[in-house]
User: What shape does this take?
Amino acid sequence: MVLKEYKFGFNIYGLLLFLIIMIPNFIWFAVPAPNDVLRAESVTEVIDTIASVCQVMMVIALCVFVNVKSHKFHITPLIILAIICCLIYFASWVGYYSGTVNTGVILGLTIPPCLAFLFFAIDRKNMIAVVPISIFLICHLTYGIVNFIV
Assistant: This one.
């Protein structure tokens, strides 16, 4: 990675992706689910803190760093994969709100949103964002497995 390939800018699509993925979270904050295990106290506080820091860094990197070699935004296979991940994530929230809390739902709430960000960053040639996204993915997955699966 050569830092000369990046400029400061504003990637509206990075912000839109983040806001789209946050929609179910905003609903969850306002309207508890029937079997709302996600409101239980976490046993992975340090990992959760690292995840939160990486999430902020990820959003900043997705929105602020623009690779000058990236193509104009259009639908590509990586963007299609990001959309599919969003759909799986939303389907997992539907399952969660229908009262289903199992390994598939928990993994559906943790892995697909992270992969959506990862596919988007790779499509935009934003390798700066890949680092915090990858750390966030590992922390988010650890949180889900340790708190709700094991």
